[in-house]
Amino acid sequence: MANISKNRIEEYTTDYDSVTYNNVTPLLTPSFLLNEFVSYTFKNLTVGVNGRYSSDSFLDNTNNKNFIVPSSFIANSSVSYKFGKYIALSFDCNNIFNKKYYYSGYVSNNESNYFAMATRNYFLTLTASL
């Protein structure tokens, strides 16, 4: 699934200095997002991989190019196995390539500040259905 958007704010006035900006991109709004997922099932085993790409986005509504969340691509994988009708075991590896990336942040004291996302991480899940 891909999403392309062209969101605009017709007129934006800052609270701190009353400067008005016209036709700006809203903060934290990437213009391009891509999510893909591919999986293959053979009998009780399913293997899958997915990726997420996000283009860069502005950290504030002034669209200052000094305050940008960089674009990122993150890949994840999963393996699951069904043991009969009621039990499944799955293993997920997120951020396979151990990329340092950000999806959010803010501007303070004329500097970019980011909220770091998780580096490579794993989940082992046992599911029991009734």
Short description:
The chain is mainly β and 130 residues long. It has strands at 2-4, 9-13, 20-24, 32-42, 45-54, 57-58, 68-69, 72-83, 87-94, 102-108, 111-116, 121-128. It has one domain (2-128).
How would you portray this structure in words?
With 130 residues, this protein is an all-beta fold. It has one domain (2-128). It is 0% helix and 61% strand. The chain contains no helices and 12 strands. It has strands spanning 2-4, 9-13, 20-24, 32-42, 45-54, 57-58, 68-69, 72-83, 87-94, 102-108, 111-116, 121-128. It has a 6-stranded antiparallel beta sheet with strand order 1-4-5-8-9-12, with no helix packed on it. A two-stranded antiparallel ribbon has the order 2-3. The chain has a two-stranded antiparallel ribbon with strand order 6-7. Strand 4 and strand 5 (45-54) form a beta hairpin. The model has no long low-confidence stretch (mean pLDDT 93).
List the helices and strands and how they pair.
Blueprint: E1 2-4, E2 9-13, E3 20-24, E4 32-42, E5 45-54, E6 57-58, E7 68-69, E8 72-83, E9 87-94, E10 102-108, E11 111-116, E12 121-128
Antiparallel strand pairs: 1-4, 2-3, 4-5, 5-8, 6-7, 8-9, 9-12, 10-11
